[in-house]
């Protein structure tokens, strides 16, 4: 192997040479050279069983290394316009869509490649909502009860120990996200934005770069994939039955994603079915950590249950995960105690909406 590769590139090559065979003990010339000549350790790669699904006995291709060399060369030459297109093409230079997730993390963390999928401006005066299950022992009139989770437990957009406040753009999206049951009593808090601020996310579509668009769809789909849990039991019974046993080959090709409009809607649910353990948030946290480096106020992400606009990108109803910078720009206003009912007789829940979205 040519020894003039950058350490970042070598880290990614090491990642592929291990993850694509499904074991960190892969005995290949590439792995031996990297470890002996460059002093790299297998411990540099943080893989868990969730990403071993990338496949068994898949070898790194010489074309992959050449493609990455060209990308690094373009960046060093300062060819901005070409580089902006080529970096997204390289991100999608995978066999299956699922591979975009770990490749994105390593291109950013190991090669220092910057991907920007747009931002959203939260405007002064906007209202946001948060739902909590009703507990008669809680004094909901106390503003402290509406502060972020004091235990700082891990959630979709925050690792354990990181302060985050989760809000919805409407009461409806909060009801869906909290999995409220018919007849269940709940407290809904109202918050108001007190100054303009920006949040990041996988939000914008490009008129000229379809590679960027597909990348945003895939990354956002992974970020918003429903997670397994007792409250989601009925939803996953339906999804597991519909998609049966999902594996890497069920995540269509890039071409299918471009020319099949329904693929963007299906992706979050396929990712959800693939998640058989409790490690999904470990990887959504990684995506949000990358976004937070540029947008420190927080993250805007779509609800997988209400994609009214561009499927899988910027939904009409959305969620905010605010970090400390953003929390300081939001003020708790008031609360109300309510009970969920079916209204016109049609129960509004994630299962019914998901069936509609998937054509059942």
Describe the structure.
By secondary structure, the protein is of the alpha+beta class. It contains 13 helices and 8 strands. The strands form 3 sheets. The protein has a 3-stranded antiparallel sheet. It has a 3-stranded antiparallel sheet with strand order 3-7-6. Helix 7 packs across helix 11. The longest helix has 16 residues. The N terminus is likely disordered.
Could you give the topology of this structure?
Blueprint: H1 7-19, H2 29-37, H3 62-77, H4 80-91, H5 100-109, E1 119-122, E2 127-133, E3 165-168, H6 171-178, E4 185-193, E5 197-200, H7 210-224, H8 233-243, H9 254-259, H10 263-274, H11 280-294, E6 298-302, E7 318-322, H12 324-327, E8 330-339, H13 350-357
Antiparallel strand pairs: 1-5, 2-4, 3-7, 4-8, 6-7
Helix pairs in contact: 1-5, 3-4, 5-11, 7-10, 7-11, 8-10
